[in-house]
Amino acid sequence: MATSTSSPVRAAYDELVARGALTPDPAQVAATGELDRVLADLLAAKPKKLFGLFERPAEAVRGLYLHGEVGRGKTMLMDLFYAAAPFPEKRRVHFHEFMDEVHAGIAAFRKSVRGKDEDADPVEAVTKPILRSGLRVLCLDEFHVHDIANAMLLDRLFSKLFAGGVTLVATSNVVPDGLYKDGLNRQLFLPFIALLKEKTVVADLPSSQDYRRLKFAGQHVYAFGTGPDVRAAMDQMWLRITGGERGAPGIVESIGRQIPVPLVAMGAARFGFADLCEKPLGTRDFVRIAHQFDSIVLDNVPQMDRTKSDAAKRFILLIDSLYDRGVKLAASFAVPLEQLGADDKTAFEFQRTLSRLTEMQSEEYLQKGLRDFEPSVG
């Protein structure tokens, strides 16, 4: 048995197995060893802080690129690694969110006085604050490149981050050689693939089981009505999804602010309707939520009339975001779906939402994996 001091990721994994939250999987166990190696190397290369500034190690620690099919536990393993890293100079973010931030930073720099200088380097401008922050490990979920703007930027961006001592730990559904496959001017992207292989250990997660699908196999994911029986059914569904883990509060970072999440556990989140649809949230917020969790439990969806017009609009946006991503939804509704209702302003959109809600409880939808797409919301 691995000890928590020498192999903290493996120890955390073993604890979940002991509690019955996970079924032991040899491929996942092997991956914990790779993650513990990265963590041990980071701790051995701990930078010193002189005069308030970080003095980085001469060379970045070699990171990890963990790839495998959907539902094999990559996100769960990243959770364990991130929680085990005993220093604050770490960041975890979805790959596309990170690239959105980079592009926004480049655009802002180009509009600045300094950015109009012919010799100005916008990539240097966006990486400098990251390096000054002392960031030691960048954890990127779902590394997948479709967009040419990202493809042409990645080599320069990560060359500077790696040179500055940042270690990359990434998860992906594809091998490095499969990134930006058949993309326009792909030959210009190939140096980044070589760099990625040099700066990370590429590891496969060849599990034969899609654990995400098992959570929902044969389940009735919707409950209707109100009262203790409905609440008990949702509690039971939550524990099934999380493997018996009750969860704890969490947050979703979105556009520089934090969205509270009442319960988070094992890649799933639990919200009340009011938490999402009666708060000032928009499409980008719901896209962030859809990218952060593979499963959502939503309690107390009410019947919506004209007095709940704003909440109905947010509910429509929420369901669109979850559906487009392929997130699994378990929910309790005060009334049957066809009676949820909407006012005249949202009637047409609400019909599409009802159609999607109907599909989202089907076995066909529940058996599908998450959809990998690059959100394009403003």
TrEMBL record:
Signal peptide: none annotated. One of its GO terms (molecular function) is ATP binding. The keyword Ribosomal protein does not apply. Keywords: ATP-binding, Nucleotide-binding. It comes from the Bacteria. Transmembrane segments: none annotated. One of its GO terms (cellular component) is cytoplasm. This is AFG1 family ATPase.
